[in-house]
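Hi C.,

You asked whether I'd gotten around to modeling the 309-residue construct. I have! Everything is below, sequence then structure, no commentary in between.
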Amino acid sequence: MRNNLAYDAGWSLLSRIGNTPLLALRKMTSDMPGTRIYAKAECFNPGGSVKDRAASKIIEDAEKQGLLGNGRILLDASSGNTAIAYAMICAVKGYRCRLVIPRNVAREKIEMLTAYGADLVLSDPLEGTDGAQRLARKMSEEEPELYFYADQYNNDSNWRAHYEGTAVEIVSQTRGHFDYFVAGVGTGGTFTGVSRYLREVFPEIKRVSVEPDGPFHGLEGLKRMDASIRPGIYDDTLADMHVDVTTEEAQGAVRRLARQEGLLVGPSSGAAVVACLKIAREHGGGSFVTVFPDGGQKYLGEKFWEVKE
């Protein structure tokens, strides 16, 4: 009998998490001499977002600690992408997951979660991810033996996934030859993990955090920290600079990325590139590495795509 190579562990779906490409954005900077922007394209993860990294690390560490298995259900709150990552990984590993998400998240995300077989609990849309967190915590406290509460906003495995993975990849891909690292803040995991690593190995690289310009915004996955429950894993002392971005600026950049660079990404990616461009204009150029958290397929129902430019 011939060996069935499809069963080789190296070909498993979860082995494809990480090692995403670093793409040069040439047209976005064509009128800005001395400016180079490189984006870590996290849509190439199997679940379609950067959250595959954190979810995988959280689950792996929970398994090592004996917190999963024996019928326990993985429980967490999410704005969508982490929920999708949990649902995909739990499907592979055979765990049940129950995910609390705001009722107004993109329809495409809810459809993906349903396809993966996740149990969904829809929270008050007016309370955003803060409300989802409060509800998930309440559920965990009421039935602690039923759930493994992953708590991505306060779980150190989140930022460690980026310290041990994303940051190492960026340094390998660039050899540290860039001036600024720019990342949006949601849970704070990506920014905190990568920035901690860079501070140790290339402290001269400026670390830039990106947030929406106000508490009421349309940048799903990002938080305005002074108007939200602050994630326990977010370390703002790592930031050398901070940039606020409006929803409209981010959406405009998303359209430009699709129509000029051929990159279909989500609004948080648009916010990241807007921040890079703002800094480049203010400081006379520079070389930037940023993270594009997800692809744009989950947002195709949004009205901003209809704007002609």
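If it helps when you're writing up: The domain at 5-44+166-306 is CATH 3.40.50.1100 (Rossmann fold).

Thanks,
B.
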